[in-house]
Amino acid sequence: MDAAITPMMQKHYPVLLKEIISIISPQYGGTFIDCTFGQGGYTKKILEFDNTKVIALDRDPESKKVALKLTEKFENRFKFKNIKFSQLKNLKLKNENIKGIIFDLGYSYTQIKDPDKGLSFDTVGKLNMQLGLNSFSAEDVINKLDQKELEKIFRYFADEKEGKYIAKNIVKERIKKKIDTQTLVKIIDISKRRKNFRVNNSTKTFQALRMFVNNEISELIYGLINATKILKKDGVLAVVTFHSLEDKIVKYFLKSLSENKSISRYTPVTQQCENLFKLTKKKPISPSYKELNENPSSRSAKLRFAIKKSDFFDFETDIEDQFKKLIEIENFGKKL
Ligand SMILES: C[S@@+](CC[C@H](N)C(=O)[O-])C[C@H]1O[C@@H](n2cnc3c(N)ncnc32)[C@H](O)[C@@H]1O
Question: How far does residue 15's CA lie from ligand 1's centre (Å)?
């Protein structure tokens, strides 16, 4: 959940739950992979249907606590793995007939409320932003990367127009002392010349930092590729995103593998994957008025899905090339 958490929100809502369930149809049974288990909102709903199994993943070790209760209740129907979804292909699936793979990107209400994770600009203390299984924190990024690198992270990941001034002031300030969350908020406030009174000054910079710390671009790209490799014919791939960059990646991936070009029988097999998916809806699904009323922070959610049309597992995609610039920026993290 990337949308800001509003004060009236007091608990975790699984976003677009009804819509997800109607797309993956668990009433007919089968195995489902919930790539972003979180508080288990989607998984619990799927397990309400007999003859279903869920394999759930989450990078946050805290999710294990929620998962443990479900493991006790659904001993033979539920399994949890504390891994990143880019590692989907390491799952030992034997002959599971995977009917659906779902992603609900970003973070949960519980995570943004956890002061140790430091995801919110209200946090007092050290910068962190690690969702789990990370190799560096936001403190490392802010205090160690150079000015140009910081500027690129803010600009490319969150379209922060004033990233240049923010990066400049970070580098100036960190000579005096290590930058913590509240110092960063102050630096951003001072650096922003164009104030937006509806959105907190820190929103974009914090989003960019969280994405960078958690390698969210490559996680999404390799998550989509590996999910598609696992999925069998008629299986559904469904993804809920919360900001335009994520949506752009999902849209490109699904569309580029589902264009209905007529294929000659002389076309090399590797090119036939252009027809790997059937896209029944071109436009994304957004939350209903009822959901927006109950959970205003679902407002930026978008759901896209596609149905796999063949048992074709070794396909080619140019998605890495398409988003090369963003992957290159994520690689700045390798030296931390
Ligand atoms: C919006 S929450 C999911 C909420 C869940 N659908 C529910 O109803 O409770 C997103 C979850 O995805 C997890 N997550 C984010 N990126 C991940 C990744 N690359 N691999 C595995 N889990 C990830 C986060 O730790 C978080 O728990």
Answer: 12
Give the residue, by CA position, lying nearest to ligand 1 atom 20. 84
pTM for the full model? 0.93
Q: Name the residue of 9, 34, 58, 113 to mutate for ligand 1: max ligand atoms within 8 A of Cβ.
A: 58
Confidence of residue 214 (pLDDT cuts 50, 70, 90): very high
Tokens of 276: 């790997």
- The answer, yes or no, to whether any atom of ligand 1 lies below 6 A from the CB of 219, is yes
What stretches of 26-92 adopt beta strand conformation (E)? 30-34, 52-57, 78-81
Q: Count CA atoms closer than 13 A to 130's CA, side-chain side.
A: 15
Domains belonging to the chain, first-starting first, are: 17-110+217-319 (3.40.50.150), 135-213 (1.10.150.170)
Question: 260: pLDDT confidence band, cut at 50, 70 and 90?
Answer: low
- Asked if residue 137 lies in contact with residue 129, where contact means CB atoms within 8 angstroms, the answer is yes
Of residues 79, 73, 65, the one with CA closest to residue 48: 73
